[in-house]
Amino acid sequence: MASILLVEDNDDHAILAQAALSSSNRMFRVERAASADECLEMLGNGDYDAIVLDYSLPKKSGLEILQDIQNTPYDAPVVMITSHGDEQIAVEAMKRGAYDYVSKSDDYLAKLPLVLQKAIEIHEMARERNQLQSRIQKSENTLRSIFENVEVGIVEIQKDCSISYANPRARHYLKIADDLRKVDIRVLFSDKEGVIERSFETGESVRFEVNYNSRQFSIAITAIRETDDNVKHLVAVLMDVTEQRKLQLQLTQSERIGALGRMASGVAHDFNNVLAAILGRTELMIMNPADTGEVEKGLRIVHKAALEGADTVRRIQEFTRVAKQKEFKKLQVGDIVHDAVRMTEPRWKDQSQRDGIKIDVSVEINSRSFIAGSITDLREALINIMFNAIDAMPDGGKLCLKTYDSDNDVCISVSDTGIGIEPEIIDSIFEPFFTNKGVGHPGLGLSVTYGIISRHEGKISVSSTQHTGSTIVIKLPIYIEKKQEQKAVVTPSESRKANVLVIDDEETIRDLLANILRRFKHSVNQAPDGMTGIEMFRSEKYDIVFTDLGMPEISGWEVAQRIKTINPNVTIILITGWGVELAENELKERKIDAVVAKPFQINQILEVVSEALK
Predict the structure, then answer these.
(1) What is the pLDDT of residues 73-118, one digit of tens each?
(2) Is the dihedral of CA 83, 89, 91, 95 positive or negative?
(3) 471-528 pLDDT, tens digit each
(4) Overall fold of domain 329-484
(5) What is the SS3 string spanning 431-488?
(6) pTM (2 d.p.)
(7) Selecting from 3.40.50.2300, 3.40.109.10, 3.40.47.10, 3.40.50.1980, what CATH number does the domain 492-612 have?
(8) 427: Cβ contacts below 8 Å, ≥ 6 apart
């Protein structure tokens, strides 16, 4: 029931109006005020849905009372009642805020309930609309405040790839100071593959990382659709992950060093075996140098032991090297598996025997297919899985590695008979920093593995039964051979003899390299340091220069730069024992034509010289 305040000084008119409103089928409850003062007093004490205001009142006119009502916080529609000929006044009343007016004609009492009902309904709708707009405005202000102060960048992207909005953090990240619409987001994000335009076409969300202004950003792009399901615009969220990536790199390196530490005793065991073979055989040869058969046998054993020692050093260098983007090469998974087994042997064999337990390792190579990848990274991924399997067998057990083909993938499975993985954590084992091994284990081994397999467009899955064991399966796409032009092969015998300069501060290495080259009829001069070598190069013409990397005063890098300045056509071959791994473009920038790693073999030197003389 609607409550009405009737402001009318005429008793007869008031009685008729009250009767008309009360008896209508719209059920009005009517209270009367006979004067302006009484009207304002009742408005202060009561709650009314509408006010019926007579224009002709004592002391104050209806227009004056209307003005008084407008000056109060009271919110209700006012309907003005005017006498015959007062329409102009009624119109003025509406200009001052009245909802409507009714002239006191013969049927005005019949019209009044209808006018009031409509006034109340429209006023209620207007009030609800205002409340809704107020809530919307409040929500917009809240969201704007969040967007303006949140610690991530937020960018709205239009279909022409211009920016229509960027919050302060995004402006700071992207160094945007001018008109937003002049900025092409594809340029900022270095989007050469058209990821943003495809998002407009497909409506799919995408995530990627970019380097911008010496910072690394993680970007998540979400499509905002219209009612017809077409993409209206994109919203990109930018997070500065520079420090996180640095930390992850440091922790990854720490994880590798930690794993190397666990291998330390086994590595020492390997080196002791190598040194024992070399020391024992050299002593026997010294005792009986006349026995040429025994001397030859001893030399072959020493040669083999030296190669095994060099291979151990190479594996350590590869294992501890910081990961970097490498060019994928054609690989066979069997080689990766065998390498991983050899590298982890000190852990599953020697260290386990020292601890009084036995771990049997078996390998089944059932795939001869090739894959494309980085052997260093894939070997590391497999080693991380094997270390976790070994940790899961504290009392010993069996570790089985298998390779097989499945559709268009090559699979590597690693199974153990260990304690298994609890069902509630099996979905978390590939997450960074997750570990159930306690303090001292950063929980990055399997996370690093997951990242490596993902970079190779592969998949990794795990299945486990508690107290029975676990199996991790890696799937990698089979390599598709690309046609390449065949190059003419030149045999070493066709190569001419060279004039060679050898620069190395280690006399033993310098003499060894010179003796190898002279043995095959090459002319060789030696220099004990970089500066001497440069001066010798100025005074004589050389075809090839071998230079050590680490030398006093100036390094092999600088030697190469200076010699190439004198004669850009000379071949520079870098000798290093640091396990340097440089891409072809980096070697070209540093003026290096080839790299030979220490310890080197005779055939390596002959091949690089033959290639240089082609």
Answers:
(1) 888 898 888 875 566 777 788 788 888 888 877 678 888 888 888 8
(2) negative
(3) 999 999 998 876 554 444 444 444 578 999 999 988 888 888 898 899 899 999 999 9
(4) Heat Shock Protein 90 (3.30.565)
(5) CCCCCCCCCCCCCCHHHHHHHHHHHCCCEEEEEEECCCEEEEEEEEEECCCCCCCCCC
(6) 0.41
(7) 3.40.50.2300
(8) none
